[in-house]
Specification:
This protein is an alpha+beta fold. It is built from 13 helices and eight strands. Helix content is about 45%, strand content about 10%.
């Protein structure tokens, strides 16, 4: 009678089901298509690449570890490895730091949501489009590239560029070339003398906006007067050489120095009409137009040159992915217990101490997720480098994923390309294992 008690085990022939009521057989059947695709698209390519990395480029012979030796002896591949290491260290850290900063600060402003939307918006742009955008941003010409337009504007605010970079003396000029690109008068000047300093080489339309029609100097007793002007008039046979004509313009702001025994005894700047006046201190001196008058205009930095190409491209990557980091960190920040922050403030901690000792430690799991995700992402960075870096500096900005493409398709070295792919896999695996262990620790908690 009591054989059907509470502790009776289920019948042995009944299939075991999961908590959702699904049998193991049904679960395997549903997983089978995914497993087949996983094998075809992941496992098989990895296995094939591993085998191919030990074969020669033609695929007909066994190369042993020669392809792997080439990874650490070929200068181009070594550059790619070095740049990839820079990417892995710098790009995720900067993007995560900016994301943390944005997430914390936007909590304190009313328009924080709008700011987050703007910062996150680049994530909606493809890498191809972002590469084209930043290729234009980093153009060398300040009139085309936004980066150099800003940089040149800041530079010229503190160090004004010359308006006459191509100006030089013409034929039968009283000026002669001097050291460093300056020009000197051939003869000393004396008080009561009026001096003509004609130059050519600047087209009338390129003259500064403040330039006025040149005016011939008037001799003054006890002073040295003169004019420096653009000795050029459009039209054949029009105008008199080394003489001020009505249609010619003065050089406004041109610096004129009086030099005696190698020392500058007086310096003045020409007026808008090119006229200038020196005191008796310049008597017997040579007049010099210093090289600063003819300095080439500052054109900014060579953002995509060999030196700055990698930092510039990393900057474009951070522009895209800082929004991703900000959104994840903001989500972690929203779930943070506020009573801990308030308790720290009550105990006398200032905002920086609260941020450093409470906020950041509590956000450590989220920060780890962002860092690991971005590290895996930058290991396979390809399109930004390929699009932004010009051909002249692409070797200097090279990374492993780009080198894999170039070895496989441009250089026709599939053995080297396969070895690079296995190296990338080996670099990703430790990061993946770290992420898995971290997730398991989170589950145990």
């Amino acid at each position: 009678m009591g054989g059907a008690g509470k502790g009776t085990a289920p019948p042995a022939n009944k299939k075991q089901k999961s908590v959702t009521g699904t049998s193991r057989t049904v679960a395997v059947l549903f997983l089978l298509p995914a497993l087949v695709l996983l094998g075809a698209l992941v496992v098989y390519p990895i296995g094939y690449s591993l085998v191919r990395s030990f074969l020669s480029d033609s695929g007909g012979g066994f190369a042993g570890f020669d392809n792997y030796k080439a990874l650490f002896t070929d200068d181009g591949i070594l550059t790619a490895i070095k740049n990839t290491a820079i990417w892995v260290v710098v790009a995720p850290a900067v993007a995560t730091a900016l994301g943390l900063l944005f997430a914390v600060l936007t909590e304190r402003v009313r328009w924080g949501t709008a700011f987050k939307l703007i910062v996150f918006m680049p994530m909606a742009i493809s890498m191809l489009a972002a590469g084209i955008i930043f290729r234009l941003v980093y153009e060398q010409d300040p009139e085309l590239g936004a980066a150099n337009a800003v940089w040149v504007g800041v530079h010229d605010t503190f160090a004004e560029s010359s308006a006459f970079p191509k100006a030089h003396p013409g034929q039968q000029s009283p000026l002669r070339p001097a050291d460093g690109g300056a020009f000197l008068t051939k003869d000393p000047v004396h008080t009561g003398q009026k001096v003509a300093l004609p130059l050519v080489g600047v087209a009338p339309e390129d003259m500064p906006d403040g330039a006025a029609h040149a005016k011939a100097a008037v001799a003054e007793p006890g002073r040295i007067t003169g004019t420096t002007w653009q000795d050029f008039t459009r039209g054949k046979g029009v105008g008199t050489r080394n003489a001020v004509d009505a249609s010619e313009f003065g050089y406004p702001g041109m610096t004129i120095e009086a030099v005696r025994n190698g020392k500058v005894v007086e310096s003045v700047k020409a007026a808008d009409d090119g006229t200038f006046t020196l005191s008796a201190k310049a008597d017997g001196a040579l007049l010099r137009l210093p090289a600063a008058n003819f300095r080439e205009p500052y054109n900014g930095l060579e953002w995509l040159g060999p030196t700055l190409a990698t930092p510039a491209i990393i900057g474009s990557y951070v522009w895209m992915w800082a929004g991703f980091a900000m959104v994840l960190i903001a989500a972690g920040l929203a779930g943070m217990p506020r009573e801990l922050l308030e308790a720290a403030r009550v105990d006398g901690a200032n905002e920086w101490q609260v941020f450093r000792r409470v906020t950041v430690p509590l956000l450590a799991p989220v920060l780890a997720v962002v860092l690991v995700t971005l590290m895996i992402n930058v290991l396979k960075i390809f399109d930004l480098v390929f699009i932004i870096a010009p051909g002249s500096s692409q070797d200097d900005a090279n990374v492993l994923a780009l080198q894999l493409y170039r070895s496989a398709f441009a250089d026709d070295r599939p053995g080297i390309a396969s070895a690079i792919s296995i190296l990338l896999l080996l670099l990703v695996v430790p990061v993946m294992l770290f992420n898995i262990r971290r997730l398991r620790r989170e589950v145990r908690r």
